[in-house]
Design a protein that fits this description.
Elements: H1 13-30, E1 45-47, H2 50-58, E2 65-68, H3 92-97, E3 102-106, H4 112-120, E4 124-128, H5 134-147, H6 150-169, E5 178-183, E6 190-192, H7 198-204, E7 207-209, E8 218-220, H8 223-229, E9 233-237, H9 255-258, E10 262-265, H10 267-270, H11 277-291
Helix pairs in contact: 5-6
Length: 305
């Protein structure tokens, strides 16, 4: 009788192929990872801005985040993630310890030097550009592709676009435009320029940004520049329990002060370009319609100039 070799390569081709397939199946049953050795590893993502953290959760890829910057406080799950710095300074050693493969960068906000440093370390940087409200939906879809959850991201983007369309359809211009100074911080006095989505949010409410002509996302401004523009209203982004309008009341001839048109808002609802911005816009619109509609009334201060 002919001796049968113990090597698969000595068997007839069909028998050898069948046996090889059986061995692969058995290996896969014992170790599922062996069945797809070429499948790419799931991305390990760090977020370089609070709104990008929020958008990642909106896109259904929150579980892919391994690190976020300070003030990443929404949704609640984001608060427990490791911190890697703030929106402008990042702890590169911490990012490496977290074995990050991707970083979400804020187009127009994340410093170019920081992006270059991350790329030099082998971290792929995904830049998210949002200058208009419509781009929020696209950003969610972009993140869904990155994190491998297109279906959830598409649903979230579609829902936001529907809400935005409905918001616009329900807003009829019923009054003159209200000029607004939006205060990001008091010291230094910081505001938002023409490239920020806040301008479109204000537009939804029939108002305009007095610094909308600045070709930037954000900028520091002089007190004199605010006084010269004499805004009808001042909106202060702050969650501080103290009265943030105290400083402005030192200038009683300022239109916004004379008319009592100073509003404190949750900055996360107006400044962060996420689906929640429509919640902030609705509150702002209500305030403008109900409290600021009569700011040209002489009772606001006929002798203020």
């Amino acid at each position: 009788m002919k001796e049968v070799s113990g090597r698969i390569t000595d068997l007839p081709a069909r028998v050898g192929a069948a046996l090889a397939a059986t061995l692969v199946w058995c290996a896969a049953a014992l170790d599922p990872a062996a069945a797809d050795v070429d499948a790419p590893a799931a991305p390990r993502i760090v977020s370089l801005a609070p709104h990008l953290t929020e958008l990642a959760f909106d896109a259904g890829i929150g579980e892919k985040l391994v690190g976020v910057v300070e003030w990443s406080d929404y949704p609640a799950a984001a608060a427990s993630l490791p911190r890697i710095g703030d929106a402008f300074r990042f702890d590169l050693e911490q990012i490496l310890r977290l074995e990050a493969t991707h970083a979400l960068a804020w187009g127009g906000g994340t410093p170019p030097g920081a992006i270059a440093e991350l790329e030099a370390l082998g971290v792929a940087v995904e830049i998210i550009e949002i200058e208009r409200l419509e781009q929020i939906g696209g950003a969610i879809e972009q993140l869904g592709v990155l994190g491998g959850n297109r279906e959830a991201a598409t649903r979230a983007a579609t829902s936001f676009r529907s809400r935005l369309s409905g918001f616009r359809a329900g807003r009829e211009p019923t009054r003159h435009a209200v000029s607004i100074f939006y205060q990001v911080s008091e010291k230094p006095l910081f505001t938002l320029g023409g490239r920020h989505v806040i301008n479109e949010v204000l537009g939804l409410c029939g108002s305009v940004n007095v610094f909308g002509g600045l070709d930037t996302e954000a900028a520091s401004v002089d007190l004199e520049a605010v006084l010269a523009r004499d805004p009808t209203a001042i909106v202060i982004g702050s969650d501080d329990e103290t009265d943030p309008g105290t400083r402005w009341r030192s200038y009683p001839n300022l239109h916004a002060v004379a008319c009592g048109n100073i509003l404190q808002v949750d900055p996360a609802l107006l400044v962060r370009p996420t689906p929640r911005v429509l919640d902030g816009a609705r509150k702002l619109c209500t305030w403008l319609d109900e409290e600021v509609a009569n700011t040209d009334d002489p009772a606001c201060g006929p002798d203020r100039h």
